[in-house]
Amino acid sequence: MAILKKVRGKYSNDNVIQNLVGYIMNFDKMPHRIYGGQGIFMYDAVQCIEIASKMFCINGKQAEHYVLSFTESEINKLTPDIILCLGYEICEYFENRQAVFACHEIKDDIGFCNNQGYVHIHFVVSTCNLHTGKMNVLNYNDFMTFAFWVSALLEKRNISLEHLIKEFN
User: Fold this and answer.
1) Best CA proximity match to 157, nearest among 105, 95, 81
2) Cα separation, 103 vs 136, whole angstroms
3) pLDDT band at 34 (very low <50, low <70, confident <90, very high)
4) Distance from the CA of 20 to the CA of which of 30, 36, 53, 107 falls in 20 to 30 A?
């Protein structure tokens, strides 16, 4: 059963985008290099998101951070290509905002991940709506709508979203 979590954090300091994107794009945690984004140039994801955030949403929370984790039994249903597609499909929920995702894996010599099956996808989403310039942060009800979106995408792949961890500040 997959777990979706909104990671608690103020994410309002000057280096927040650089720190978050730098953390999720750590290639040591990504042996398959599964990553992507929307509304950004991947070669400079940090600068793209920072520019938009500083132009429009100067004060307050600059980004949101979500993690989707999978169990060992679910990993057997996922290939790197499926995870990549899933990352892009989940980003579509944030249609007017910039987003970047990266899959972190624990790999061993026998395959895609270790026998614990700990694979998870991080999502860093700008709070700035590129069309309106307004800050857009998911509240509890918005998060539940997002969770239903993710659940529907997972169900297409015979994976259930059984756990939501909602940490709001």
Assistant:
1) 81
2) 24
3) very high
4) 107
